[in-house]
Design brief:
Strand content: 5-15%
Order of helices and strands: HHEEEHHHHHH
Strand order of the largest sheet: 1-3-2
Shape: elongated
Radius of gyration: 21 Å
Helix content: over 70%
Number of helices: 8
Length: 233
Amino acid sequence: MFGLYFDPMYLVFAAPALLLAMFAQWKVSSTYSHFSQVRNARNMTGEQVAAYLLRANGLNLAVRDTDGNLTDHYDPRDKTIYLSNGVARSSSVAALGIVAHEIGHAVQDAQGYAPMRLRAFLVAPANVGPMIGYLLFFIGIFINAVGLVWLGIAAFSLSLVFALATLPVELNASSRALAMLRSSAIVGQGEVDAAKAVLTAAALTYIAAATQALSSLLYYVFVALNLTGRRDD
C-alpha cells in the first residue's frame, strides 16, 4: 500500500490475520460476558481475591482501580495490580480468572521470570522500531533504494519479536493463575474450568497479535523481494 495506491496483495497477507483478530476479540467479549454473570461460590470480589492470592504468594503489593473495561494489568514499574471496576467490584468467576492472571504476572516479576524481563527490555524498541521501519521502508521504495527497504523491514520486525516474546509471558501467567486457583480454598467446583475458559479466550488475542505482526512483515518482505527482482532484471 503506497500513497493512494492500494496493493491487492496486501489483503492476501493481512486478511487471515485480521479475521483471526476479529474472532479473538469476539471470543473474549462473549466468554467474559457469559462468565461475568456467574457468581463465584465464595461471593468474593476481585479485590478480595487479589488480596487473598497476594497473601498466599507472600507478596505485599498495592491493588488499585483503573479506568476502562478489561484494562486489568500488573505494572512491574510500581509493583501494583490495576483492576478495572468491572473486575474489582465483581464477584463473578470471570473476575477470579482475570485477577489470578495478574497475580501470576506479579509472581513472575518477584521470581525474575526471564521471558518477562526480555519483554520489558523490548518495550521501547518495539514502540519505536515500527515507526522508523515504516519511514525507512517507504523512503526506500520512493527512491528505489533496496538496502533502505530491507533496513526498514528489520526495524519493523521488532514488533513481531515483541509479540512473540509476549506469548510465553501471558501463557505462563495463565498457567500460574489456574494452579493458584486449584490449590486455593476460594474456588468452588467447576470454577477453575470457567476461569480457564476466560483465560484461554484472552490468550487467543495475543496469538492473533503475533499473527498480525507476522503477516505484515511477510507482506513487506514480499514487496522488497519484488523490488530486488526488478532491479536484478
